[in-house]
Design a protein that fits this description.
- 27% of the residues lie in helices and 21% in strands.
- With 1166 residues, the chain is an alpha+beta fold.
- The chain folds into eight domains: 46 residues, no CATH class; 167 residues, Acid Proteases (Cathepsin D, subunit A, domain 1), CATH 2.40.70; 293 residues, no CATH class; 84 residues, no CATH class; 98 residues, Roll (Ubiquitin-like (UB roll)); 119 residues, Orthogonal Bundle (Endonuclease III, domain 1); 102 residues, no CATH class; 62 residues, SH3 type barrels (Roll).
- The strands form twelve sheets. A six-stranded mixed beta barrel has the order 3-4-9-5-8-7.
- Strand 34, helix 18 and strand 35 form a beta-alpha-beta unit.
- It is elongated.
Length: 1166
């Protein structure tokens, strides 16, 4: 049975690691330590002993480099260092010492060696761990080398050699001829004499050809031995050396790509862990034990809480690791010596610890405590906080397999959820942010535990003096137990002093702190001022200091002393804008009270490693930009699926996708989300609803939550609260299953929000567009799907949250519109410069208010009420005009323009409003013009010269009447479309005029049949005597042409006219009466019709032809316009000139034929 299987069996049976019996654990085992391996301080059975961590998968590890450490004394330990000749692919070569390390499984070289060889290489990043350090990231190079003995010709190939900044291997560990002359069995070995002083090559077991022993010579016990390989003789072991130093050379222990795996894990779970909340509900046995220790050891002295370290076993004796601490101190010395600025800052920080009582000098070095431990320490700087350095104590550094962290219990996770603190920060209008100063250092450590927190330091930072021993009296940044202990002390403060303050104060300490950061929101400024004051007082009672206050309200900031404010608002003037700051890693624009995103793209290689580094740099705990990051994560997933190397150049396919994503990534800086869920002017909330949407696709699945708030005025506001998106598994999964995973994600999203949100939710609604998901939910046989989801089905074709349905465009959209058209003007205004004289908006007196250009008129004192300047041709402008046109009842241009100018000043507004009104469909239905086309050419029948009169006849009003004259009827009837009298041309116009005159003249005259026929015959003659050509003023011209001249072949067809007057109408002289009426008709004909023949009064130009599928309104004179039927053109008839003047329209009732002048075009088909 393997070691891992043994550990699994012991855990499953809940046995003691030491005696392998049940009902107790190793910490409580009364049996003596069962492990008999020397130097093993772990209390476990010999069957469970291993140099590796239990449960560690060796097969999954990356290449590591394991070496030993040598201590200098009167004996020099030779490490198998030999002189070699190294050669690169370019032919360049140089001599150096090389260490043959059988315990290393990766070959390394000093970067100075690559500089000497001047060879090409490719970048590589790996994690390097040493005996005294838990690990650090190394950015090096990868090369292939050739190496051979200085006095030999046998080349050895070294593939994929990684470079480091410097190999900390001393050349003094190389054997010399003088060292082995005293040993008879090695006396004849000749080591090449060189003047080399550096070891720049470490050859690991990944190059086995360099390690194969060709000959071995050994002496007695504890004497050195020699191994001859293809690179020459290597001497190993102790040799007398009177020049040995006291420096410990610590070689590399581990180098692997674990960091990259950690980055991947963080990226996949950066939103939130699905099971983290379930795991947090209960405490483990170790957590309960740690809680018991903290509760029993906590005291309060001098205003500060004091807690003992939660030891796994208080009887454990720690080994003396002074040697390790001293070696690490020498490394620190070299680092500080090379950087004077860092040296000063580090010295100031340590001295500050001593002055404030966080640390003290140890005068009694010999301690009776079994737990004495010396902590290595090193500086950590933050590029966002220049001039500040943090001293980090390396509690994870191991000595003889033991570290301080391995002996301490981590303790329960008492911190609030990061997501929960940010969500509660967004609840109310007035925001507060603060920070506990040096939180870990405000909680003291019991005196008997201080010896485990010793460290070495030079008095006053003088590197030339001998270091002294100090110890920390407080909990450390770096100890595994510190977060739990300090969080326990903070919450204990709230419980101890809750009775002295309002309940809200204690709840804020319990719920609104994440480590040392406090984020809180309240409804009013008065509440914020009182809460800030009470919080400072309560926290101070526990020994903490709450400082670096920040708020989005100036009145709140003014109520806080300047010494307690954040540095960015200490000297804030009345007209100064509030700054942007980070709130738990999230960018908070305090002035605009919005959450924004900062993108800082570093120049990374186009490799799997470089892409992962960029994607991981986007911090988005609420998942607000998950749709953006999901695309990049998909690229990383594909690269992992295809097993590309970490530093292998990605193919062109992914190269283009990545470049496209990176190009658009800076646009995230233009995105912002309101910090507060509620509108700024809301007073009372009437209804709060939570709506969670979920979906899945081939790319991934996810969910997002919106908070819908209705205030006392029935105004509705929707805010994006949180989102989560995950990639689909590499193993193919069906779309319905992914949609179901999205639904489950929505449920877990609801669990988080319901736990963390302090608003009363009146209704929760889950939305999905998948009926299959609903089928899964109703399933009772599969536990995965049961009792997890309660929601509504949303059809795929029903959109939600339509932007065009909003009452007004948001400030962000308006700013985007202005940036597209007025970028130069915005740049000038931001620099407090006037716009150029030639600018389109120069005459509007533009001012920049909250990133929007407004027109400052003579009547506007409040800049926020000035109208926003907008271009006339942008789509957003069209939407705004349409909104005012519709809300004002489809009124005319002037009224719409006046209404819109209350908030917006649209360039060329009159023209823009007219364009929108002309395209308004409801307005077209009420007032839209009919279709028209250029007047058609004359009919062929009207231009036929070889046909006798009456071959073609146009009739209307009186007929036609069929009369039998003894011969067959040879007439072809051609009908015009209904309601198209204009298609009759000239005769329609003449008949209409004749009809109107008939009505006027004989309206009140009663004529007999003979009188009527006589009157019509005379009228016919007069009508046919009308001139059909232009009348000339030249007496020499021919007589004017008339229809009678064509019919009767003579110019004068009239009978001699008598003399008649008006009184003849009333006489019984009927013939005279008829003649008088004929004269009157002729006079009116000349006066009314003849002038119309001289010009065309309409349809003078070509228009757009109607087309099939055009939507039209069909005119019907029998009903009101509002009731005219709606129709669609299904067939068109083209005239001889190619234009369309009649068509068939499909209405809801039938198909009808209509001329285009009886149709009103509403929507074009294209």
């Amino acid at each position: 049975m393997s070691l891992d299987d043994r550990y699994k069996l012991v855990r499953m049976l809940k046995l003691c690691y030491n005696c392998l019996k049940g009902k107790h654990f190793a910490n409580n085992c009364r049996k003596p330590k069962a492990c008999t391996v020397s130097d093993c301080n772990v209390k476990h059975n010999i069957l469970l002993h291993s140099w590796s961590k239990p449960g560690f998968d060796h097969a999954a590890t990356q290449p590591s480099v394991n070496c030993a450490a040598t201590k200098g004394s009167m004996i020099k330990n030779c490490l198998g260092i030999i002189p070699v000749l190294v050669k690169g692919r370019n032919g360049n070569s140089c001599k150096t010492f090389a260490l043959l390390d059988d315990g290393a499984d990766k070959t390394l070289c000093d970067e100075r060696l690559l500089q000497k060889l001047n060879i090409a290489s490719k970048p590589v990043t790996f994690e390097m761990s040493t005996v005294s350090s838990s690990g650090s990231t190394i950015h090096g190079q990868e090369v292939d080398l050739q190496v051979k003995a200085i006095d030999g010709n046998d080349n050895v190939s070294l593939k994929k050699v990684w470079s480091v900044k410097k190999l900390p291997i001393s050349a003094r560990s190389a054997a010399e001829n003088v060292d082995i002359r005293k040993l008879p069995y090695l006396a004849d070995i000749q080591i090449p004499s060189t003047d080399l002083t550096e070891v720049m090559l470490l050859i690991g077991t990944d190059s086995p050809n360099a390690h194969i022993p060709l000959e071995v010579r050994s002496g007695n016990e504890n004497q050195p031995y020699a191994i001859r390989s293809r690179l020459g003789w290597a001497i190993r072991g102790p040799i007398e050396d009177t020049h040995a130093s006291n420096v410990i050379n610590v070689h590399f222990e581990e180098a692997r790509d674990v960091l990259l795996q950690r980055q991947l894990e963080r990226m996949w779970t950066s939103d939130f862990d699905d099971r983290a909340r379930e795991d947090k509900n209960g405490l483990s046995i170790e957590d309960k034990e740690a809680m018991k220790m903290m509760e029993s050891s906590i005291t309060q002295e001098d205003g500060h809480f004091k807690l003992g370290l939660p030891w796994r076993d208080r009887e454990t004796t720690l080994p003396n690791n002074m040697v390790l601490a001293h070696a690490r101190l020498q490394q620190l010395k070299r680092k500080l010596s090379s950087n004077e600025t860092l040296h000063k800052m580090y010295t100031t920080t340590v001295n500050d610890y001593i002055e404030k009582g966080y640390a003290k000098e140890v005068t009694n070095i010999e301690s009776k405590s079994k737990r004495v431990w010396y902590l290595p320490h090193h500086p950590i700087t933050n590029e966002n906080k220049p001039g500040k350095v943090r001293v980090v104590f390396d509690c994870a550094s191991k000595y003889q397999g033991i570290s301080l962290n391995s002996q301490l219990l981590q303790g329960p996770d008492l911190m609030n959820s990061l997501v929960g603190v940010i969500i509660r920060f967004r609840q109310d209008k007035v925001a507060l942010a603060a920070d506990i100063e040096a939180m870990f250092h405000q909680v003291r450590v019991r005196e008997d535990d201080c010896d485990a927190l010793r460290f070495l330091w030079w008095p006053n930072g003088n590197l030339d003096q001998k270091p002294k021993i100090y110890c920390m009296n407080v909990h450390l940044f770096g100890a595994t137990s510190s977060p739990s202990c300090t969080a326990y002390a903070l919450k204990r403060t709230a419980r101890y002093y809750a009775h002295l303050f309002d309940q809200e104060v204690a709840l804020t300490v319990e719920r609104n702190f994440y480590v040392d950061d406090c984020l809180k929101s309240v409804p009013s400024e008065q509440q914020a001022i009182k809460l800030a004051t009470d919080l400072q007082s309560m926290i101070k009672m526990g020994g903490f200091r709450l400082t670096k206050w920040l708020s989005n309200k100036r009145n709140v900031l003014n109520a806080i002393p300047e010494s307690e404010r954040a540095s960015s608002v200490v000297s804030l003037g009345p007209s100064d804008m509030l700054p942007s700051d980070k709130a738990l890693g999230v960018i908070w624009d305090v002035n605009e009270d919005k959450i924004k995103f900062k993108v800082k793209l570093s120049d990374k290689p186009l490799t799997r490693r470089g892409i992962l580094s960029v994607v991981s740099s986007i911090f988005d705990p609420l998942g607000l930009v998950s749709p953006v990051t999901l695309r990049a994560k998909a690229i990383v997933q594909h690269l992992c699926k295809e097993k590309f190397g970490w530093d292998e150049q990605i193919p062109q396919e992914y190269h283009d996708k990545w470049k496209s994503w990176v190009k658009n990534l800076p646009c995230l800086e233009n995105l912002s989300v309101n910090r507060c869920f509620l509108p700024r002017d809301v007073q009372h909330v009437k209804n709060v609803q939570l709506h969670i949407f979920s979906d899945g696709s081939e790319l991934g699945y996810g969910a997002c939550a919106y908070l819908r708030v209705v205030d006392e005025n029935d105004r509705t506001t929707c805010s994006l609260m949180m989102g989560k998106a995950r990639l689909a598994p590499i193993k193919q999964v069906s779309i319905p299953r992914l949609e179901l995973s999205g639904a489950v994600t929505a449920c877990r999203l609801y669990e988080i929000l319901s736990d963390e949100l302090e608003l009363k939710i009146n209704k929760v609604t889950f939305w999905t567009d998948s009926t299959i998901v609903l089928g899964y939910i109703r399933n009772t046989s599969r536990y995965y799907c049961r009792n997890r989801y309660l929601g509504h089905h949303l059809p795929c074709n029903n959109g939600n949250l339509n932007v065009t349905e909003l009452r007004e465009a948001t400030d962000e959209i308006l700013a985007h519109v202005q940036m597209s058209y007025f970028s130069d003007e915005i740049t000038n205004l931001k620099k407090a410069k006037p716009v150029k004289k030639g600018s389109r908006i120069a005459s509007l007196n533009p001012v920049l208010v909250n990133e929007l250009i407004r027109s400052k008129g003579r009547l506007n004192y409040d800049l926020s009420t000035c109208p926003v300047i907008l271009p006339n041709k942008h789509h957003v402008t069209t939407l705004i005009i349409r909104y005012y046109h519709e809300t004002t009842g489809h009124v005319g241009k002037q009224q719409v323009l006046a209404a819109s100018r209350e908030k917006y000043w649209i360039l060329k507004g009159s023209s823009a409003v007219k364009t929108v009104i002309d395209r308004c469909v409801p307005c077209k239905r009420q007032h839209g013009p009919f279709c028209k086309q250029q007047m058609a050419p004359l009919l062929e029948e009207q231009m036929t010269a070889d046909k006798p009169p009456f071959t073609f006849v146009g009739v209307d009003y009186f007929g036609p009447l069929n009369v039998k004259l003894g011969r067959s009827v040879d007439i072809i009837w051609t009908f015009n479309p209904p309601y198209a009298s204009h298609r009759g041309g000239a005769w329609e116009r003449m008949i209409r005029s004749t009809r109107n005159i008939f009505k006027a003249l004989i309206n009140q005259q009663l004529l007999s049949d003979e009188q009527l026929l006589t009157f019509m015959a005379e009228t016919e003659r007069i009508m046919n005597d009308r001139p059909i050509t232009a009348i000339s003023d030249d007496c020499r011209d021919l007589p004017v042409l008339t229809p009678n001249m064509l019919l009767l072949m003579k110019s004068n067809t009239s009978t001699p006219q008598g003399v008649f007057d008006k009184k003849d109408i009333y006489a019984k002289r009927w013939w005279k009466q008829i003649q008088h009426l004929a004269n009157e008709f002729w006079k009116r004909w000349l006066r009314e019709y003849l002038p119309t023949l001289q010009q065309r009064r309409k349809w003078q130009r070509e228009e757009r032809d109607v087309e099939i599928d055009d939507i039209v309104l069909v005119a019907d004179e029998r009903i009101q316009r509002g009731q005219w039927p709606l129709g669609r053109i299904v067939e068109v008839t083209r005239s001889r000139d190619g234009h369309i003047r009649s068509c068939v329209v499909k209405t809801s009732q039938s198909h009808i034929l209509r001329p285009i002048n009886k149709l009103c075009l509403l929507e074009c088909s294209k």
